[in-house]
Write a structure and sequence with these properties.
Chain lengths: ~170, ~350
């Protein structure tokens, strides 16, 4: 068994799992965080995307042990009880998800992009979402939603600069 | 070098089953707090049908979409529905819900007429109120009417209805009949770049004009069209189930069965053509499956426009396009006398 301890959505979580356990299995089966989806389990579909230390990764291709001591963000950590994250808000407003199975992965790929770049070009958005397969939407409204989310986040960061109120800073 | 081409394809598509019965049933209940509950057997798969069905009920009852709670897809409790197939949900289930809402509204009007001292025919349901036509200041809230209907008059405002698209069976001798109650129409235009040295096709833009009768929710219609186009792009250029000599599927995975990603998608312009079908709920027809129908034909026509070759088997992979280009060149060279 391998002992792992990591920060998931801001909380320290530990588990003792067989060494072949993937991060996705750890999240879903040990921590009951079922937002990251098990699609293909070989890194093709991107439904299991989570953010590890700022990078969007396929959690089905990462061992739980490799995430030991690192920061993991899953879809469950994106919204607060009161507010959707601006990316989620933008996806909702644009009708950018249909069946939604790819949604958690797409949103986290978008977040990893926007954490680095608040003004991405269409091509940069297409590149960032290219590892997330979607059978329903044709991606068009997703790309529009990421552009809208970028605009919302730019506004938010400007507001925070003008009235510096660290206590309301979003995670 | 890359050669650009444009292609166009048109289609019609029927809504509902071919002649055979495909009914939908629905129940609409007006609650005493002014909200409504819709029971339907159809299923939401992300296309947004429950939103559209809620909008239809809300419009019929004169309340807001947010006031409508749609309960769906439970064979124990919801009325029979043929299902989310044949691009039929908005049209067939929508009609059933519209009729059920009208039946509930008729009970509300019977209850409201003496409250407002007018005839039933003078009433309309609007802005969460039952009001006198042309005298909207004479009104009573729809929740109050629903309460009176059930608690005083003993006639709860509940309507149930079913609807089956009217068709005429095809005559086995002549083939004549009316197999479907309504049809939708669309045209798509594709612009592609074809690399005549590699056969690679890149779809740059697709303009899609679709008739779906009244677009009850234009954003969801656009979403359906864009999604259908992505399936059409995959069908035209990428997606193929491969079988070995024993009939075994040899690419049952997303590694070798290649479907479009965000990088394969063209720029899409959706044009919803204004239409009104008097047989549909508020003039609506359907939009689901038809969206994928013309895409691959438009792309293959664009390939012909770009490099002058016809590819007759899908997907038009780089190999097939390049083979066709080489065959065309060889045929052209043969015509030169030795």
């Amino acid at each position: 068994m391998t002992d792992v301890t990591m920060t998931i959505n801001g909380q320290t979580r530990s588990a003792s799992v067989p060494p072949e356990t993937t991060l996705l299995q750890l999240l879903r089966e040990n921590f009951n965080l079922t937002g990251a989806k098990l699609g293909c389990d070989v890194g093709d579909c991107g439904a299991c995307t989570v953010i590890v230390d700022g990078q969007a990764v396929n959690s089905c291709l990462m061992l739980a042990g490799q995430a030991d001591g690192r920061q993991v963000l899953t879809i469950e950590g994106l919204a607060s009880r009161e507010h959707l994250h601006p990316i989620q808000k933008a996806f909702e407003n644009s009708g950018a998800l249909q069946c939604g199975f790819c949604g958690p992965g797409v949103l986290l790929s978008a977040k990893a992009l926007l954490d680095d770049n608040l003004d991405p070009s269409t091509q940069e958005i297409r590149d960032a979402l290219s590892g997330n397969l979607c059978r329903c939407t044709g991606y068009t409204k997703m790309i529009e939603a990421v552009q809208e989310a970028a605009r919302l986040l730019r506004e938010e960061s400007r507001t925070q600069l003008t009235h510096a109120r660290p206590e309301v800073a979003t995670p | 070098m890359k050669r650009r081409g444009r292609g166009i394809a048109c289609m019609w598509y029927p809504i509902g089953f071919t002649v055979s019965a495909n009914p939908s049933a629905a129940t609409v209940k007006m609650n005493e707090d002014g909200t409504a509950t819709v029971l339907t057997g159809t299923v939401e798969t992300g296309q947004g049908s429950l939103t559209v069905l809620g909008q239809i009920a809300a419009e019929a009852l004169g309340i807001a979409t947010d006031d409508v709670h749609v309960v769906s897809a439970d064979t124990d409790t919801t009325p029979m529905d043929t299902g989310a197939i044949a691009s039929r949900t908005t049209y067939v289930t929508g009609n059933a819900i519209f009729l059920a809402a009208e039946a509930a509204k008729a009970i509300l009007f019977e209850a409201a007429a003496p409250m407002l001292d007018v005839k039933v025919s003078q009433l309309e349901a609007k802005d969460r109120k039952i009001q006198v036509k042309n005298y909207p200041q004479r009104n009573v809230s729809i929740g109050e009417v629903a309460l009176r209907a059930q608690a005083v008059l003993g006639t709860p405002a509940i309507g149930s209805a079913s609807w089956n698209p009217p068709t005429v069976a095809l005559d086995p001798e002549t083939g004549q009949g009316k197999p479907f109650a309504t049809y939708v129409y669309a045209t798509q235009i594709a612009e592609v770049d074809v690399d005549d040295e590699t056969g690679e096709v890149e779809v740059l833009r697709i303009a899609a004009a679709h008739d779906c009768g009244t677009a009850i929710n234009p954003m969801l219609v656009e979403g359906q069209v864009e999604g259908g186009i992505s399936m059409g792009v995959g069908m035209a250029l990428q997606e193929e189930m491969l079988f070995d000599a024993n009939g075994r599927h040899i690419n049952p995975n997303l590694t070798n069965y290649i479907m479009p990603t965000s990088l394969d998608m063209p720029e899409i312009t959706v044009d919803i053509v204004q239409g009104f079908d008097p047989t549909g709920p508020f003039g609506a027809k359907g939009v689901g499956e038809p969206t994928a129908v013309p895409t691959s034909a438009a792309i293959l026509n664009a390939i012909h426009d770009a490099v002058g070759v016809r590819v007759y088997s899908l997907p038009a992979t780089s190999e097939k396009v390049l083979t066709a280009i080489k065959a065309k060149r060889a045929a052209e060279q043969k015509q030169i006398p030795a």
